[in-house]
Amino acid sequence: MAALLILIPVLIVASRGDMKTSMVITFVGVGLFNYFFVPPVYTFVVSDISHLWSFFIFFIVAYLISSQAKKLKLIGEVIREREKRVRRLYKLSRRVTAVSEMKQVIKIAMPLIAESLGKETFFFLRKHVDEMPKLYAHYDPKSPLSSKKYDAMFEKLEAIFISSSEKAVLDWCLDNGKIAGAGTDTFLASDMLYIPIQSREVVYGALGLKIKQDEMTTELKMFLDSVTSVMAVSFERISLSEKNSKNAITLAREELKNALYGSISHDLRTPLASILGMVSMLKTDETWLDEKKRVIISQVIFSAKKMERLMNNLLDSARFESHKVVLKKDWCDIADIFSQAAREFEDILKERNFSIKIEEESGIFKADCVLIERVVVNLLENAIKYSQHGSAITLGFQKEGARCNIFVLNEDSHISEEDLKMVFEKFFRIKGISDDINGSGLGLFICKKIVEAHGGTIWARNVENSVIFEFNVPIEEE
Predict the structure, then answer these.
(1) Longest CA pairwise span in the chain (Å)
(2) Is the pTM of the predicted complex or chain greater than 0.90?
(3) First to last CA, the chain
(4) What are phi and psi of 442, to 5 degrees?
(5) Is 229 domain-assigned?
(6) Do 77 and 102 fall within a single domain?
């Protein structure tokens, strides 16, 4: 019983992690046990050899107790450290969910990492793949300025020198999306450890830590992996949120613009139709009409129809961009479409060498006749606008295989190859032969949208001294 009592101080000292002291206490305890309890008492003489075996077993038991107590202490310290890091990770993840900027995430994460590890911490940001990374934040837990003012981590960064060799390691880390530097098998001679902050193949930046080669442990690696994962997820969430906000603003802007187009167009079409009707009645009244008045009325009608076409283009633009166009297909006669389009410009076409060329006996095909006529009218107006007095303009139709080809040829015109690629873009305008040429840049854009809605294609090309605008639509069986 006395021997077991002697083991108590051994256990107490060993639990504090002092192995040497616990063994000294064991030796002293064996001596005291021998002096007071082993005959002959009050001497250190051992008369029975069996007591020596007892002393030896006592030493073995004390050693085992001491070593196990020390291990338990180390395990307890590891568990407490893990608990602290888990709490820090929980605190980090909880706080970053409420922020909406990457800078705020860095401002929260950097002090937590640096103060948890007691290491100088850096953050390098790279906005684009082809852009050189730059030092975005630096936090030193030993600096009183950093601990008092977190915003200081973003200040005076130009005074921090990063060697070319460290920059090379950083570039490799960002390009490959892998950990590199001190404590790893890649660039282990580096002074810092670099950990990429990435999510779904997107590398937002890298975390840098000043550590030594032998300081990299499994626990540390797990902690850093967890922290960088939380940062990467936060960066991705913020990036997606910013994109969604931009898309929402763009969508709202487009909806407002289309609504404005529609409202203005509808409000203008009603009085415009009245003007056209009244002026057309005046044109048919021969009792007071002389040549001068006829020219004026023709010019008024032409301008009113031009305004009507502009209103139609604005309405069509809003409809196509809001995906509210429903084709009303019926059997169309190309001769009727050509004649109706020519009637829109009957007065001004007298000043051109205008002709219609239909190569097929039957120019019948199925499409939205109103929209196809709109395409022909816009192409014909474009040809008139960029042609000279007396130049030839030809409307043509032919069938090629399973498609109908319709074209407008404008003689004595030319478009540069660069402009040919952009001519059907919205609001794009070619510099004309006269400074008086005006337009909205919507006509050809509407033509492209209408043709594509029919499953066709439209293009422009130069042929000798002429320009041809041509489109096709698929032929549907009866």
Answers:
(1) 157
(2) no
(3) 112
(4) -105, -25
(5) no
(6) no
